[in-house]
């Protein structure tokens, strides 16, 4: 399709009307600015138990303090869910049953069975249900995958990935086990999932874990390793470790790394990757972008019958399966 023709189609496309269920930190950081700047989607209404917080994210001022009322609004076409993890599937299913497409924050579900239940509803209704793995839309992420797939670094032998932060308030929902808290659920969709999609969802074996438990019963820090597609992967997640983000891939002919301590959270700022092949090092730079908007716009275009990549259900299932296996190895305190 010619660029001019595509631009004309976008300009004439009625914006998809989004509703938010949840008006917390992630919604404010992520999809709120993404949709404010979008040419194909807009925030129509917000569902929030806190009226003032909801109004702060609703350009029109339309706020429902009852989520069911938001879902009953016939003008709402798509729902973005950023509730505590344990509520993701319940409201995803309710939204689809109400005729809405769903973009659900990570992790989409607490287990594989829950996830498959929502996928079944998506298939029955013909509505989009997608896990919001926004970093997968980042041009730098796409380029790293392209480099690995090209074979320029040879056969992948080792993968190292990490996403950590510290300063978490013990009362934060991310630390409450009953609400789906823990580092694996919160950060695993980035650093633990990365080796899986990088290696094209090859079989996983030899899972080993080392875990520090939070007093609330969730995993505070997790070191996990496994073998996948001929490579050995080592991943780290932590809610109580100074900010550390990296994604390093080592092959038989070279290596590629996402540099800048922002491997999985580069958002509206320039970024870079470093490639070394047979001793020669080169750096590729990427302009600032909003991967949340790239993701939401892809989904909005698909809702309107246009083009746009959507992360397949099979990938979400693969991530959930690994998380389940990791919890089996970890046990519980």
Question: Mind explaining what this structure looks like?
Answer:
This protein has 333 residues and is of the alpha/beta class. The chain has two domains: 3-133, NAD(P)-binding Rossmann-like Domain (Rossmann fold), CATH 3.40.50.720; 139-288, Dihydrodipicolinate Reductase, domain 2, CATH 3.30.360. It has helices at residues 3-12, 25-29, 31-36, 51-56, 67-72, 88-97, 112-125, 139-150, 183-191, 194-198, 291-303, 313-330, and strands at 16-21, 41-47, 63-64, 78-81, 101-104, 129-131, 156-164, 204-213, 219-228, 231-238, 244-251, 254-259, 271-277, 280-286. An eight-stranded mixed sheet has the order 8-9-10-7-11-12-13-14. It has a six-stranded parallel sheet with strand order 3-2-1-4-5-6.
The tally of structural domains comes to 2
Distance between the termini: 56 Å
Radius of gyration: 20 Å
**Alpha plus pi helix count:** 12
- The helix content, as a percent range, equals 25-40%
Strand content: 25-35%
CATH class of the largest domain: Alpha Beta
- Overall mean pLDDT stands at 95
Q: Give the overall shape, derived from the CA principal axes.
A: globular
CATH superfamily grouping of the largest domain: Dihydrodipicolinate Reductase, domain 2
Order of secondary-structure elements: HEHHEHEHEHEHEHEHHEEEEEEEHH
Poorly predicted ranges: 1-8
Structural class: alpha/beta
Strand order of the largest sheet: 8-9-10-7-11-12-13-14
How does the major sheet shape up?
8 strands, mixed
CATH topology of the largest domain: Dihydrodipicolinate Reductase, domain 2
How many strands appear in the DSSP assignment?
Answer: 14
Query: Judging by the overall fold, what is the CATH architecture of the largest domain?
Result: 2-Layer Sandwich
């Amino acid at each position: 399709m010619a660029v001019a023709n595509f631009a004309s189609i976008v300009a004439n496309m009625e914006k998809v009307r989004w509703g938010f269920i949840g008006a917390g930190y992630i919604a404010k950081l992520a999809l709120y600015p993404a949709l404010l700047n979008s040419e194909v989607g807009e925030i129509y209404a917000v569902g929030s138990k806190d009226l003032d917080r909801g109004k702060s994210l609703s350009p029109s001022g339309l706020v429902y303090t009852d989520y069911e009322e938001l879902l009953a609004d016939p003008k709402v076409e798509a729902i973005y869910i950023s509730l505590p993890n344990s509520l993701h599937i319940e409201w995803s299913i309710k939204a689809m049953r109400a005729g809405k497409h769903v973009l659900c924050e990570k992790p989409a579900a607490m287990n594989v069975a829950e996830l498959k239940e929502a996928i079944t509803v998506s298939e029955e209704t013909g509505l989009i249900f997608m896990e919001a793995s926004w970093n997968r839309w980042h041009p730098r992420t796409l380029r790293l995958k392209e480099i690995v797939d090209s074979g320029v670094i040879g056969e992948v032998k080792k993968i190292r990935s990490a996403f950590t932060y510290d300063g978490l308030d013990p009362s934060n929902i991310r630390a409450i086990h009953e609400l789906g808290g823990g580092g694996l659920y919160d950060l695993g969709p980035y650093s633990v999932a990365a080796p899986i999609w990088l290696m094209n969802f090859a079989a996983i074996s030899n899972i080993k874990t080392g875990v520090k438990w939070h007093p609330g019963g969730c995993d505070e820090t997790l070191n996990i390793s496994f073998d996948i597609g001929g490579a050995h992967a080592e991943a780290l997640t932590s809610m109580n470790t100074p900010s550390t983000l990296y994604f390093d891939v080592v092959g038989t002919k070279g290596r590629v790394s996402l540099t800048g301590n922002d491997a999985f959270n580069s958002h509206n700022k320039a970024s870079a990757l470093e490639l070394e092949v047979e001793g020669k090092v080169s750096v590729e730079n990427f302009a600032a972008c909003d991967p949340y908007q790239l993701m939401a716009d892809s989904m909005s275009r698909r809702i309107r019958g246009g083009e746009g990549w959507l992360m397949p259900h099979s990938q979400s299932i693969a991530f959930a399966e690994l998380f389940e296996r990791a919890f089996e190895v970890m046990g519980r305190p």
